[in-house]
């Protein structure tokens, strides 16, 4: 009797959660529908979820082959996101390894000071960062954005929490075999940290891809624009054409959808482990 009640309760809960999840998908479904229509059918009420006349290829052509250099913006975003993701993984994992497994004077104090900087909002550092990039000659370059995006306190903290759960016996055994710091880091710590590295990599890639504020402040040349700023140009040129705007938006989020769909298990596993360890 109890097991029957439990099954019914689970079924009802699952059904409610499924319906609730569909609410979050409605904007995405509408975006796909609008991107496949002619402009005259986009704002028709009641909503026609399936277009009566398809114009998917026409909207696709206007976005990718039109006067706005969407392909260039795409390549800029891919370049910036990949480089910032890889450098963040490298530097944050090295810092986490040092704060976790290396013994040096003031280690905990240095880590505490590092964490204290997390309370400073990024908007409060815009002016100092602007001046620094000007002095270094990196203003209005991709190098400036990469320089600012290659270090992360948050991801260092997340990786450190995970690495604290790796037993020191692995490191001691490697040292007995003659391994140095770099070999321990590269050959033991990184392979054992794959779940959290995948999580950090995916989250950093998504953040870098969606970043609007930093390119807006630190880039002037149109040829250097990433996707978020490029979409702004579409809004200027196609303000009254929602079909083209939705096609541009759909094209912009495709890499993020693919990354999450392919690696969602690693994301969930890494977040769970990162939240428990330490």
Automatic annotation (TrEMBL):
One of its GO terms (cellular component) is plasma membrane. Pfam families: BPD_transp_1. Keywords: Cell membrane, Membrane, Transmembrane, Transmembrane helix, Transport. Residues 74-263 form the ABC transmembrane type-1 domain. InterPro entries: MetI-like (IPR000515), MetI-like_sf (IPR035906). The chain crosses the membrane at residues 80-99, 111-132, 144-163, 184-207, 242-263. It comes from the Bacteria. GO terms for biological process: transmembrane transport. Belongs to the binding-protein-dependent transport system permease family. PANTHER family: ABC TRANSPORTER PERMEASE PROTEIN MG189-RELATED, ABC TRANSPORTER PERMEASE PROTEIN MG189-RELATED-RELATED. This is Carbohydrate ABC transporter permease.
